[in-house]
Amino acid sequence: MAASAFSRALETVLAHEGGYVDHPSDPGGATNMGITRRTLADWRGVSPYTDLPKAEVRALARSEAEAIYRARYWDLCRCEEMPVGLDLALFDFAVNSGPFRAVSTLQALVGVARDGIVGPVTLAAVAQRTPKALIEALCRERLGFLERLATFATFGRGWTQRVAAVRAAALAMASSSSTSETKDMTLLQGYKTYIVGALMLVIGALNLAGIDVPGFSGAAGMELIAEGFAIIFLRKGIKAATSRM
After folding, report:
1. Which of 62, 86, 117, 216 is least enclosed, having the fewest CB within 10 Å?
2. 109 or 176: whose pLDDT is higher?
3. Biggest distance spanned by C-alpha atoms of the chain
4. What is the dihedral of CA 138, 64, 25, 145, to 10 degrees?
5. What is the pTM of this model?
6. Is 70 exceeded by the pLDDT of residue 43?
7. Spatial contact of 231 and 193, defined as CB atoms under 8 Å apart
8. Could you tell me if 73 and 99 are in contact, meaning their C-beta atoms sit under 8 angstroms apart?
9. Cis peptide before 48 (omega within 30 of 0)
């Protein structure tokens, strides 16, 4: 069974986050699999967060970490609805620097209000852009933000390597998806296109013969026939062009 987009992205994130750490220079404090003590306490409804023992962070199970990542980062950023590759870049940015910053940075890149909430307007604006270009821009902005942090001197090397690795993985995913979509259109959808074109020819011929077809009553027979031929020949043209690539 093929892994889901979330599962693939999570594996990439966890590869960078590692296990339990409690670095004195890290403002996140005790962290396990990238889940901070504060985040875990909030997830479990513990307040103040200091009431959650660090031992609980150390003992964090993979299943609970996965649930947090899905709800608080992947779903919150609506990564499932992002283009392939951009979903990973946005998700990892959100995990590393917070969902609001990741989303608002993406919103600035696509020219919509920076409210940190992914809604229909943001999704529509993203759909108008080339995924690879957005991945490049988002990773560039992300690294620029990290370089301005006071802790960059301590963690900068690791952050830089992480952003570079995520950028490369995201671009590879986007390229693979683009190739797959082209093949799907030309090899799989092509048969459906021929069927639609043939049906239009038949319905057009019936209309010319004075026979009304439900849903097409009053349709101009010659127009349907012309459109049917246009669809079929367009499909053939696409197929021929693709075979020469």
Report:
1. 62
2. 109
3. 84
4. 10
5. 0.71
6. yes
7. yes
8. yes
9. yes
